[in-house]
Amino acid sequence: MQGNKGEYKNSLHCAKRIVMEGGPFALYKGVIAPMTGTGVVMALYFVAYDATETLIRKLKGVDSLTPLSMGEIMLCGGSTGVLGSLVLGPAELLKVRQQTALSSGARGSLRDVILNIYRKEGPLGFTRGIGATMLRDVPGSMAWFGAYEYTKLLLCKNPKDPSVGEALFAGGMGGIAVWSFSLPLDCIKTRVQASSVPLTPVVAFRAILSEHGIKGFYRGIGPALLRAFPANAACFAARDKTKSTLNNLCGM
Fold first, then answer.
1. Transmembrane stretches, by residue range (predicted)?
2. Residue 84 belongs to a domain with what CATH number?
């Protein structure tokens, strides 16, 4: 929907057209690439966050029980976006190309998309949109982790060891924050990656603004927010409980 230049009126219209043209399984077109990349990216995000947090604590000379400032938390979050974009950028490029192939009637299997990019653009073709992905993910990750940690500070007696319910709610709020903030940047990133010719984020921004106005940067916000809360609630709760369990097993 974001990569389309006005063919779809809204999310429901988009879904109906996709099902009519490609059947119900067309709704899952392009899901393999991001599913493969997302697990790796989530691991990189949390490793990068913890590594940056450890570095900040060492530089400040404080222990793990001393709370970080919100600015320091957001700095940790921003570091995750840099690393994650290097994996997520190419994965989302494949997803976007598969989805745009469907609307144009071209062959859209993952193999076809990979071969098409390689033949037309060479190995560097897979890096298209990494800069735009980073532009989205660095500030987005700052909002993501910032909202998550701030919600825990408000809710939890011990923010370092939230209950499952607290972690679920805080994670969901992190998801709402990241997509509310990042969706306009995601629209720009999608336009860059969907284009058949090289585009800079600035050119993509101007094109979206010219075609749809400000509301063009919020196309798809309903489905994004509908997905954001449960997906991120589960993600953060699983991360916190897994980390707590491993720490207990290792005696940390």
1. 26-48, 68-88
2. 1.50.40.10
> Which residues, 6 or more positions from 130, have their beta carbon under 8 angstroms from its beta carbon?
85, 86, 89, 90
- Please state, in angstroms and rounded to a whole number, the distance separating the CA atoms of residues 206 and 188: 9
How far, in whole angstroms, is CA 159 from its chain's centroid?
24
Choose among 20, 202, 207, 26: nearest CA to 100: 26
Any domain includes 6: no
Does this model's pTM top 0.90? My answer is no
**Residue 198's CB: how many other CB atoms inside 10 A?**
10
CB atoms within 10 A of CB 154: 10
> Does residue 3 lie in a domain region?
no
From CA 89, how far away is CA 44, in angstroms rounded?
A: 14
One-letter amino acid of 18: I
5 lies in some domain: no
More confident residue, 2 or 119: 119
Task: Tell me: pLDDT of 22 over 80.
Answer: no
Evaluate whether residue 218 is within a structural domain: yes
- Average model confidence (pLDDT) across the chain: 85
CB 92 within 8 A of CB 129: yes
Q: For the chain, percent helix, then strand, then coil, each to nearest 5? A: 80, 0, 20
**Number of domains within the chain:** 1
Measure the CA–CA gap between 77 and 49, rounded to whole angstroms.
6
